[in-house]
Amino acid sequence: MNALAVEIPWGVLLAIKAVVILAVVPLGALVLGYTFLLKMMSHMQSRLGPMDPGGFHGWFQLIGDGIKFLQKEDIVPDEADRRVFALAPTVVVISTFLIFVVIPAGPRLQVANLDVGVFYALAVSSLSVIGVLMAGWASANKFALIGALRAAAQLIAYELPLLLAVVGVVIQAGTMSLQGIVSAQQDGAIFGWSGIGNPFILTQFVGFLLFLIAAQAELTQTPFDMPVAESELVAGYMVEYTGFRFLFFFIGEFGTATAFAALAATLFLGGWSIPGVHGTAADLLGPLVLVVKLMAVAFLMFWVRFTYPRLREDQLQALAWKVLIPIALVNVIITAIIKVAI
Amino acid sequence: MADSATLTSRITDALGDAVVDQGEARGTLVIRVRPDAWRSSAEILRRTLGFDYLSFIAGIDWMPAPVVGLVEGDTSTPAQPSDMTFGVAGSAGRFQVFAHVQSTAQHAGVTVRTDVEEADPRVESWVSVYPGADWHERECWEMYGFVFEGHPSLRHLYLPSEFEGHPLRKDFPLLAREVKPWPGLTDVEPMPGGDDEAGEEGTA
Amino acid sequence: MAKLPGLIGGLGITFKTMLKGAVTVQYPHEKEAPPTRARGVIALSEENCTSCMLCSRSCPDWCIYIEGHKEQRPPKREGGRPRSVNILDRFDIDYALCMYCGICVEVCPFDALFWSPEFEYSEPNIASLLHNKDRLGAWFATVPAPEPLEVGADSGKKK
Amino acid sequence: MSTTEQPTTPGFEVDPAAFRHLADAQVNVELDTGDMILNMGPQHPATHGTLRLVVRLDGERVIAADPVIGYMHRGYEKLTEFRTYPQVTTLINRIDWLSSFANEVPFVHAAEQLMEIEAPPRAQYIRTALTELSRIATFLLFLGEMGLQVGALTPAFYGFRDREHVLNLIEAATGGRFHPNFNRIGGLKDDLPWGWISETRNVMKIVLDACDVFEDLVVGNEIFQARTRSIGIIPGELGASYGVSGSNLRASGVDWDLRRDGAPYLAYPDLDFQVFTHPDGDSFSRYWVRLQETRESARMVLQLLDGMPAGPIMAKVPRIIKVPEGEAWVETENPLGQMGYYVVSKGATGPFRVKIRSASFSNVSILPWMLRGVYVPDVVTILASLYFILGDIDR
Question: At what angle do helices A82-100 and A117-125 cross, to 10 degrees?
């Protein structure tokens, strides 16, 4: 267990953690962007997607795009509130970085094991809407403004089902620490059989679906992509952004998608854990297991994104308040009753 | 399709003394009405006769286009007769406005037209009868300069608001054809086959 | 088929399509052959052209420019009359103006103009789209042979 | 899958639904905000072309909308006066560029009527087949495009993918993918190439399959239905008085199809086909009607291929075409609606006056009425469901 336990000065540890977090977000954005946006979507649409850059199936395309964005002129509209305009993409990206702080990739591979990990992750993720609002307001563009206001309205509607969906998991695991939730699933048993542990997707399937739906809204992906709705609002709050600022939004979008996929994998699929694998082996295998589970969740999210049309803002509100929240509440109550009963 | 003779008599009976003349455009009835009965004719056509569908409203300028700088042997522009002739239902002068209305239930259509004075081109608007007349009349107004009385807002439809002139009048030149010399004018060979009229195009 | 909820049926369709393989043709690497009738570019057979101007005149866009002059040639046989021959000095088609209607090819009475399905002649400069008679003549090698017609076509009128 | 069933929206009444959003706003009167003018277009993804919409918004609700057209006005009615009859067909190809072949037919037909010639039966059949093919091509694009406007990316690609097969057929026969210029006064330029008929049979299978895919992927999708049902209702009578035609009018319950009800033209009298109507008149019913018509067109093409007569494809026509003096009005059922040409000839080689009655122009002119009281996202679905081509509006 302590084979890896070399004493590392806290300063160096902090630096390592910062570097890891800084690397994970763009990397996640890159992997998800490439796998799903470029390749899966293309194939679902009978296309190949980019094939040339980098030689093998165009793997270099997104990196090339990133480099291209860095070379682009940084355009700030005349009427824009320049400082807010410049700050907005950073706010969005920072909220993404902050989520990864609590996501565990192994028994010890976690930047910070907060006792209120779940609570922290969901709270931090909703910060991004502030960036979106800033972007929409500061762009001095009516399309951007409408998009930003839609995003804000959407957040209010969807934060609640998202939280309530997780409450079931929290009740079942008896902890809000993500590490605790993972080990509850790893060491759990289904009616005494512990072959696959007890992934909460089985007991909390309704919660899992609610979480995915709400996450879809949180990520402004179809069918809830009204804030960016390219056929109505052109690109919503991003409409005036160019170059590296747009790149920030892109990283933010796919980075957050990675984060939510990881969160869902952790909460419902057992995260990094494989039943029976503990200690150093888990530390080594954990990241890989997490990535596999994360990709599976992300596949679901993007599959829906590329298949469905978009709802209208009022329909989304109706769905959230009239359907999802009641279901989530019932789910919480049933979970609580069973928990108390057993 | 309604029997064309009955249709004609039904329409002319209903329109009464508004009818000035009538003719036929290859199977389509053309009725020319008095200018002061233009709107009331529409009213009758729609409310009494059930022509509920407005196909189009358009203008026509019967004046032959003035020949500007036409060179000998230029076959690119179709040479229209140089004297002013009018269509199947006749006309009092250069301008006419014509419209086609149809009945979706009776599967029949009729073209109505009326004269427009050249000095003071005014016509009654159909917007109150057929709301779809709005855009057609705006188009007609900017293309021919006809003023549709009773139209809510005669604004430019296609052309920029500072545009001057009425492009579909025959005396409005087509600049594209005047700034460039016709390339077909150098050294003319006699056409093969000699006689132009008799040949057959065939399946080239 | 059984009526699944539309939301799930839709997912099935996209998933099936994903497994089916793409229809993309990776253009510069692989090319689709256009049908033989495709109106790609107009080829000129210079020796057939008598500079009769028929194509130039029937062009709706006035984009064919022809210049020619007559030359006297010695008679073919002894004692015959000297022949007058049309020499083509210039035959330009401005593809920036051309509408690809094919009227010129059709009216040509001497079989001097042909359609070729070639399409790769885009230019960064609009002025370079004016093809002169050498360039038009070079396309002639790419003109396909006329294809057979469908059953029931009037055989008497075949080319 | 049954094609004759015509779904209705239960409890549907025209007026309250059309003004439902207005009623909502009445409740929220104390939350009223100032109006905002939003300029959509001329470059906007929803206007697929250069239509400009100036909408006055209260929040996301449209108070008034003013379409601004003319960004692509090319003055075809003027240009036709400077061209000969064969040259005009090249121009009118470019009016509705997605179904150019269907554009040529009424004009050529008008000239033929004036010259009192008739194209041979084989030419009529081929013309009809190509017209229906261009209808399929246009509608396949619509079926996908509408999905895109509602926010689903994927159907658009399916639309483009399957339309490609149809365009290949049109190109193989005419030589032009989009601008065939294949009709001649008195017939056609050329006969069909070898193998075209069997190839077309294969493609029609693909088209019918594609229709099933759209049925499941788009029509069956609950989100799509939520977005389009009882949105953008055109009452039939009002639509007719605006000159709305084609599938748009049939989706409002007006049973009127010029292929069946107009003056007989092409081979349509020989064909057995069904005209679809839908009682609702909303965006969904416009989509539904077009989907059914795509299927029906594919069946009509198959019928035409089976009955294709042998024989010549050109009537006797003088080499230089001079059209005798007279007037002719020919209207046809084009993919977008009623397309007509009022041709006035004075006996010259070119027309004296051509009035081009294009479908989209009238279809779009109802927009100011339709858009009052809807939300911004509905503007997009209404525009998409009306299905217009800018070239067909601006001419």
Answer: 160
Nearest CA in chain C to D199: C150
User: Can you give the pLDDT at residue B70?
Assistant: 56
Run of H or E residues at B23: strand B19-25
**Contacts A–C by Cβ distance under 8 A:** 35
Domain boundaries, chain A: 10-341
D131, D336 Cβ separation under 8 angstroms: no
pLDDT in tens, C102-124: 888 888 888 888 888 888 888 88
* Chain D residue with the nearest C-alpha to that of C10: D217
Closest-CA distance of chain B to residue C106, Å: 6
User: Which range is least confidently modeled, C75-79, D202-206, D383-387?
Assistant: C75-79
User: Which CATH code is given to the segment(s) C34-145?
Assistant: 3.30.70.3270
Rounded to the nearest angstrom, the minimum Cα separation between B187 and chain C is 7
Q: Which helix (H) or strand (E) holds B97?
A: strand B95-103
Q: What is the pLDDT of residue D236?
A: 85
Q: Is ipTM over 0.85?
A: no
- Length, in residues, of chain A: 342
**Token pair of B143 as six digits:** 């293309």
Residue A309 and residue D379: Cβ atoms within 8 Å?
no
Assigned token pair, A107: 């028994």
pTM higher than the cut 0.95: no
Number of domains in chain B: 1
* Domain ranges (residues) in chain C: 34-145
Do the Cβ atoms of A329 and A164 come closer than 8 Å?
yes
- CATH of residue B14's domain is 3.30.460.80
Structure tokens at A162: 């998202």
The CATH homologous superfamily for domain D83-361 is: Cytochrome-c3 Hydrogenase, chain B (1.10.645.10)
Judge: A46–C17 Cβ closer than 8 Å, yes or no.
yes
In the structure, do chain B and chain A come into contact, i.e. share 3 or more CB pairs under 8 Å? no
Q: Which residues of D touch B54 (CB under 8 A)?
A: 240-243, 362
Distance from CA of B188 to the nearest CA of C (A): 6
Cis peptide leading into residue D42 (ω within 30°)? yes
Which DSSP string do the residues of C79-113 spell out, in sequence order?
T-PPEEEEEEEEEEEETTT-----HHHHH-TTS-E
Instruction: Provide the 8-state DSSP code for D203.
Output: H
Cα(first)–Cα(last) distance of chain A, in Å? Answer: 34
Q: Is C80's Cβ below 8 Å from some Cβ in D?
A: no
